[in-house]
Write a structure and sequence with these properties.
Layout (H helix, E strand, L loop, with lengths): L3 E4 L3 H12 L4 E4 L15 H10 L2 H5 L4 E3 L1 E5 L6 E4 H5 L5 E3 L2 H14 L3 E3 L2 E9 L2 E9 L5 E4 L2 E4 L6 H6 L3 E17 L12 E6 L2 E7 L4 E9 H8 L5 H10 L2 H6 L4 E16 L3 E2 L2 E3 L5 E2 L7 H20 L5 H26 L6 H10 L11 H9 L2 H7 L8 H11 L12 H12 L8 H4 L12 E4 L5 E4 L10
Parallel strand pairs: 1-2, 1-11, 2-7, 4-13, 11-18
Antiparallel strand pairs: 3-6, 4-5, 8-9, 9-10, 12-15, 12-16, 13-14, 14-15, 16-19, 17-18, 20-21
Family: Belongs to the flavin-dependent halogenase family. Bacterial tryptophan halogenase subfamily.
GO molecular function: monooxygenase activity
Protein name: Dehydrogenase (Flavoprotein)
Length: 490
């Protein structure tokens, strides 16, 4: 069996470690913090529920008593409130939670240990060791201990925004200028969701300068935050003596937030975080896979961070297991992981960028979602269902297991249309100023900030002709469709 080192014990690293350990692979998880530890990202997509069920941790999460989440209410732009209710669209089992991440993440890391992974907390990984272009181990230090070198056949970098491989070793992580946002948030007790909200659903409210979130947690406690561009945040910050004063003022400026917090009690403590969205040039390579935020980070508007982490963690485990069993060669495994993970990120990125043009309206967002996904096996394909499925994370799971291996084809169609002067869903949603900046960046390629959906290379797309797809039964891995199963996407 190959030896695997996982850097980071968040949802992505824990998912990968648990799945590998359950298949008998020797796994060591090196986590720099001591759990439980606070973390933002409390609103979970329903796709995570499916992955947790497969990993065997669903009952443990259910027993935590987290708020059950069934969708989202958006008060966005000039339109009236509109609701995506997953249980109404897809059935009563399609739901998730609003979680306290310190507890959620601890359950997942403990589950990885109980599954057979060796978990070391307070372990600081200094660097990933390479032999040529291949990752062969890590240099790390336990709390109060001496520096150690440990070899491995594969390294899964789930180090979050630290990005030990992409940001520190290769230095090929590219920021997205459009999403240079800052979030400021805190907690209130006894707030109220907007009327018509789906049970336990998140409220997302737009404003001229950004957007607000309202998340109902356990014990009638609410996570409440505001996201705005860094430039606006810096300018407004000068008006206030403290972050706490700024947070309260931001809430008071929104009639909607004043309404939902009218009878609520503020809990002291303010958090500020820069949401610098980015993507690495490569999500994997010889001997390594980048999972979760170590590969890419997306603006938090659609609450997709934990989905991308757990989804990529499952893909990394499937790739390593398939390699070990000889189901694929290394080049195929890398292409499988790269294309499916990048496709999931691109699809969500394209949808999120459309929301920042608030005048577009929900019909436009639904139409774009419809373009970004394919019909289900029963032939149904409607814009509102497509949107609901994408923000639930279910489109990625469905298309990863497509026996025809066409998971990324819808994204390719969108990009091809833009390149040939046809429908331009991304470009049309950019402001004139943003388009001008992108043209300027094209003129100075060494200074260009990559816009992933617009500059994607054809080699980043999943090769439908290969027929590679994700399998979970009778065991996790990669399989390939027979020649008569592989069809041409259209």
């Amino acid at each position: 069996m190959p030896k695997v080192i996982v850097i980071g014990g968040g949802p992505g690293g824990s998912t990968a470690a648990a799945l590998l350990a359950q298949s008998g692979v020797p796994v060591k998880v090196l986590e720099r913090a001591e759990f439980p530890r606070y973390h933002i990202g409390e609103s979970i997509t329903t796709s995570c529920r499916a992955i947790l069920d497969y990993v065997g941790a669903l009952d443990k999460i259910n027993s935590c008593g987290f708020t059950s989440k069934t969708g989202v209410l958006m008060r966005w732009g000039q339109e009236k409130d509109w609701v995506i209710d997953w249980t109404a669209q897809f059935g009563t089992d399609v739901r998730s939670w609003q979680v306290d991440r310190e507890d959620f993440d601890t359950v997942l890391l403990d589950h990885a240990g109980e599954s057979g992974a060796e978990v070391v907390q307070n372990a600081q990984v200094k660097r990933v060791i390479f032999d040529g272009d291949r990752a062969v181990g890590v240099e790390w230090q336990p709390a109060g201990g001496e520096l150690r070198v440990e070899t491995a056949d594969y390294v899964i970098d789930a180090s979050g925004r630290a990005g030990l491989i992409a940001a520190q070793h290769f230095n090929h992580r590219r920021p997205h200028e459009i999403f240079r946002n800052v979030a400021i948030w805190g907690y209130w007790e006894n707030a109220e969701l907007l009327p018509g909200s789906p049970s336990g659903g998140i409220n997302v409210i737009s404003s001229p300068d950004g957007w607000y979130w309202l998340i109902p947690l356990r014990g009638n406690r609410f996570s409440v935050g505001f996201v705005t561009h860094k430039t606006n945040f810096v300018e407004r910050r000068r008006e206030f003596d403290s972050p706490e004063a700024m947070l309260k003022a931001m809430m008071a400026e929104s009639p909607t937030m004043k309404q939902v917090l009218a009878n609520a009690t503020y809990q002291p403590g303010v958090h500020v975080e820069q949401d610098f969205s980015y993507a690495a040039d490569d999500f994997c390579g010889n001997g390594y896979f980048l999972v979760g935020d170590a590969a890419c980070f997306l603006d938090p508007l659609l609450s997709t961070g934990v989905h991308l982490a757990m989804y990529s963690g499952m893909l990394s485990a499937a790739s390593i297991l398939a390699l070990n069993r000889g189901e694929v060669n290394e080049q195929e495994a890398q292409a499988f992981f790269e294309s499916l993970y990048r496709n999931a990120y691109h699809r969500l990125f394209t949808l999120v960028i459309s929301f920042y043009q608030q005048h577009a309206g929900k019909d436009r967002y639904f139409a774009l979602a419809d373009t970004l996904s394919r019909a289900r096996e029963d032939g149904t394909k409607s814009p509102d269902l497509a949107f609901g499925e994408i923000i639930a994370g279910l489109t990625d799971l469905r298309e990863a297991a497509d026996r025809a291996g066409q998971g990324a084809q819808p994204i390719k169609e969108v990009i091809d249309a833009a390149a040939t002067g046809g429908v331009k869903p991304v470009q049309e949603l950019l402001s004139a100023a943003e388009q001008a900046r992108l043209r300027a960046e094209d003129a100075a390629p060494n200074q260009r900030v990559t816009m992933a959906p617009m500059y994607i290379d054809a080699n980043d797309l999943y090769d439908a002709a290969s027929g590679l797809y994700l399998v979970t039964e009778p065991r996790l891995g990669i399989s390939r469709a027979s020649s008569d199963e592989t069809v041409t996407a259209g």
